[in-house]
Write a structure and sequence with these properties.
This protein has six helices and 33 strands. The chain has about 550 residues and is mostly beta strands. The strands form six sheets. The chain has a 16-stranded antiparallel β-barrel with strand order 13-15-16-19-20-21-22-23-24-25-26-27-28-29-30-33. Strands 1, 5, 6, 7, 8 and 9 form a six-stranded antiparallel beta sheet that branches. Strand 12 and strand 13 form a beta hairpin. The radius of gyration is 25 Å and the shape is globular. The two termini are about 35 Å apart.
């Protein structure tokens, strides 16, 4: 009982006392081809101490490129990255108070002198040193050592902000490297760790394993994907990313370990709904999350990728750090594929406004082709401005063994809008169908279909805390996606509510607490530990995410 009370309290207790450096302003315009010739225009109209737009100076170092602007009372900095031939911000604009004292009048008309954080301490705070004391204005020794390297003014952004700045949504080939990544020549190395503990209030029985090292046990939290294990401390993902990019060539390799790597390589793909006690994995490729080679022809807006890559369909990604919520939506886990082996050709039609993408894959979640028919996809991305992006995706192919004619189709679109600087909105909608699926009841074959819709908000009152509620309605109209691919099951609808609290411990490190409720129209959808059944499932999850 004590564990339940603590989980409930932490999940629903937003924090407003965490202090860290503030972000403010927007990048209005970037011109130039290299660091020394760049001209960056800041829009500080919402920052209070400076109104209008300003041009900044550039700081060019091996560790990264930074634009800097000084006003009377603050210094503003933003890290820049070059991707697909275009320069853009890699994160927020960070505001550093300058080292001086300022006078303000108190309520009694007396003059009070307020200490302002020294610039050296502000820089240290951006790197996670004495952040709370710096933000609260407590006395700190003026002997604070200046950092020898350029301060890390960037922070891990919410998924929508990464989307708004990335010319091609997916696959994530040759995304700009993290500023924390060490350089080996022009090769960047970075990493990510994702660990979680989840408590299923239905008391689902522990997962059983036969002992075969080539198999993984089924999850004991139904209709979840990566967070499918109840009452266990799980290393979901430990990843090392190696990237290289220049004007024309590049590559990206993700080396993955953990239960997420097993689940991604499971065969059949939807291990959580498989009928066997254990699901065999593809041991040859499961530790390669992605491996993509990129070529960009000179003097064109084209980009070509080939290899193992994340699917271009859907708003969420395989990596929890890039999503607003920790648990993936049912739409992502059961309505679409996760990854492919194939190729992608992208074209920037209108600079920073319209992009087109074409894809050819072997199939869904497999390194190998199981018939003689390829799977084809398309993408159109519209960026109306810096605060709104809409993406339309299509996917079609024959996915069953030795069947080249009966197609599976996906129609999907998503929209991300930054309503105000502290509040963003996302929606994702999906329709899918497949031909010639066996009906268990009648023995006949017919077309089956499924639909889903999600709505989500992300409120970030400070740079160290965010609250992300999500609503989802999933219709498995023929019991096909929940019952297992190949035959139909029992039709049902699933309604899900998710609330995620995310706390930034330091740049790149997060602690998330999440509450989620799933409710099915099928009365016996979820199983309790005493083998009773219910139509409802509630989980509490704590997750630790760290990028380096």
């Amino acid at each position: 009982m004590t564990k339940i009370i603590l989980l409930v309290a932490v999940t629903f207790l937003p924090s407003f006392v965490w202090a860290e450096l503030q972000s403010c302003g927007q990048v209005k315009k970037i011109e130039g081809s290299d660091c020394k010739s760049l001209r960056v225009e800041f829009d500080l109209s919402e920052c209070g101490d400076a109104q209008g737009s300003f041009q900044s100076k550039m700081i060019c170092k091996k560790a990264g490129t930074t634009a800097e602007l000084k006003t009377q009372s603050n210094k503003f900095r933003v890290a820049l990255e070059r991707s697909h031939g275009e320069w853009k911000p890699s994160g927020k604009i960070w505001r550093f108070p300058l080292a001086k004292e300022r006078e303000v009048s108190n309520s009694k008309s007396e003059v009070a002198v307020l200490p302002v954080i020294p610039e050296s301490l502000a820089v240290a705070a951006a790197e996670g040193v004495s952040v709370t004391e710096a933000a609260s204005g407590k006395a700190v020794s003026e002997k604070t050592t200046e950092p020898k390297s350029e301060p890390k003014v960037d922070a891990k952004e919410i998924a929508s902000e990464a989307t708004l700045s990335n010319p091609m949504i997916k696959p994530t080939s040759i995304d700009a490297p993290s500023e924390t990544a060490p350089a080996l020549g022009d090769i960047k190395v970075s990493g990510f760790i994702d660990a979680y503990y989840s408590q299923n209030m239905n008391g689902a029985a522990p997962a059983q394993h036969t002992g075969n090292p080539a198999t993984i046990p089924n999850g004991n939290t139904s209709l979840r994907y990566y967070d499918q294990y109840n009452d266990q401390i799980q290393l979901s993902l430990a990843e090392i990313t190696i990237k290289k990019e220049n004007e024309r060539m590049g590559f990206l390799v993700d080396l993955d370990f953990g239960t997420s790597a097993d689940i991604n390589a499971a065969n059949p793909a939807y291990s959580a709904s498989a009928s066997t006690a254990d699901v065999r994995t593809d041991e040859m490729s499961k530790h390669i999350g992605q491996a993509i080679a990129t070529y960009k022809p000179k003097s064109t807006r084209l980009v070509f990728d080939i290899g193992k890559m994340a699917t271009h369909v859907g708003l969420e990604t395989m990596k929890s750090k890039d999503n607003w919520n920790y648990s993936r939506s049912t739409l992502y886990g059961y309505g679409i594929p996760l990854w492919h082996s194939g190729a992608h050709l992208g074209l920037e039609v209108a600079p920073q406004t319209v992009w087109l993408g074409a894809y050819v894959y072997n199939g869904w979640n497999s390194m190998y082709e199981n018939n003689h028919a390829k799977t084809f996809g398309g993408q159109i991305k519209f960026a109306a401005n810096d605060s709104a992006v809409m993406v339309l995706n299509y996917l079609e192919g024959a996915e069953r063994n030795m069947d080249n004619t009966h197609l599976r189709r996906i129609y999907e679109g998503n929209l991300t809008v930054k309503l105000v600087p502290t509040l963003s909105f996302q929606t994702d909608w999906l329709g899918g169908n497949e031909d010639n699926v066996l009906n268990n009841s009648t023995g006949e074959r017919r077309m089956v279909s499924w639909k889903a819709h999600t709505l989500a908000l992300k409120w970030s009152p400070s740079s160290c805390y965010s609250l992300s509620p999500r609503y989802e309605f999933y219709e498995d109209l023929d019991g096909y996606t929940f019952g297992g691919y190949g035959t139909t099951g029992e039709a049902q609808n699933l309604t899900s509510w998710t609330v995620t609290n995310a706390f930034t411990l330091s740049p790149g490190t997060e602690l998330r607490f999440e509450w989620r409720q799933d409710q099915s129209t099928k009365a016996n959808r979820f199983v309790k530990e005493n083998f009773d059944t219910t139509n409802e499932q509630i989980t509490y999850t704590a997750a630790f995410l760290s990028s380096f």
